[in-house]
Amino acid sequence: MESPLLNIEDLSISFGTREVVHRLSLTIAPGETLGLVGESGSGKSATSLAILRLLPASARITGKIELNGHSLLTLPEESMRKHRGSSISMIFQEPMTALNPVMKVGAQIAEAYTAHHPGETRISLRNKVLQFMRDVALPDPERRIDDYPHQFSGGQRQRILIAMALINRPRLLIADEPTTALDVTVQAQILHLLKDIRRTHNLSMLFISHDLAVVSQIADRVAVMQHGKIVEQNTTQALFTNPQHPYTRSLLASAPTMHTDPTRPLACP
């Protein structure tokens, strides 16, 4: 059996006396997408920030986080900085706060690359930025490379963040609620783009969401999180057709479908 790219064992995260993640264990295989699902405050984002070692110094972290067999929690900070954006990248959920509003988008994508490849020539760097703008289907990149974030739509800004996350060709992509602020049509386009990128770049992905319907479209496996604990893990098909945990069943029942009785209230997870 192939070794996992990401291996997390007994991960616990505390802030003072409050434990937000309790003994979490999960794995992601090379080329696999794992959906991490749970309501707000369940510990999903804290888990992703622990992988990147971006939690504040006040956080207490115990357990094991390994990338390709190497411990991330014991790395010196300088070594960990080299992993961020290169072997592990992250797409954040709100592109307007993640992007610098007074910096041209081409320069922001280029900065993500030069942080790990400082010797790149200006012409080569511009060509690389244009190529990744094309890869994420941004329209007319030659003209728009010098535009600012406010000149793009919400879906286009999310594509810019995806280009920044991918330009160093990471092995693991963490997508933290990447479609939450988008309308349904644009959401579907971003999900389709992520699936294409995963295949063409041979990526592993941790896809974080509170929306089971979204996760069902992209994940190979799903881990359901409640109050800082993983309560159920299974393949996407098995989890949706035969959920075992009461919380998973409540999450599924809380989402309206074409068959939902409009005269009855939705379940509350």
From TrEMBL:
SMART domains with a match to the protein in the record: AAA
Topological type in the membrane: Peripheral membrane protein
MF (Gene Ontology): ATP binding; ATP hydrolysis activity
Matches recorded under InterPro entries: AAA+_ATPase (IPR003593), ABC_Ni/Peptide_Import (IPR050388), ABC_transporter-like_ATP-bd (IPR003439), ABC_transporter-like_CS (IPR017871), Oligopep_ABC_C (IPR013563), P-loop_NTPase (IPR027417)
Main subcellular localisation: membrane
Gene Ontology biological process terms in this record: peptide transport
Stretches assigned to the ABC transporter domain: 6-252
Keyword field: ATP-binding, Cell inner membrane, Cell membrane, Membrane, Nucleotide-binding, Translocase, Transport
One CC-aspect GO term: plasma membrane
Compartments where found: Cell inner membrane
Pfam family of the protein (one): ABC_tran
Top-rank taxon, per record: Bacteria
PANTHER family in the cross-refs: ATPASE AAA-TYPE CORE DOMAIN-CONTAINING PROTEIN, OLIGOPEPTIDE TRANSPORT ATP-BINDING PROTEIN APPD
Similarity-based family: Belongs to the ABC transporter superfamily.
Name listed for the protein in its UniProt record: Peptide/nickel transport system ATP-binding protein
The species this protein was found in: Granulicella pectinivorans
Top-level taxonomy: Bacteria, Pseudomonadati, Acidobacteriota, Terriglobia, Terriglobales
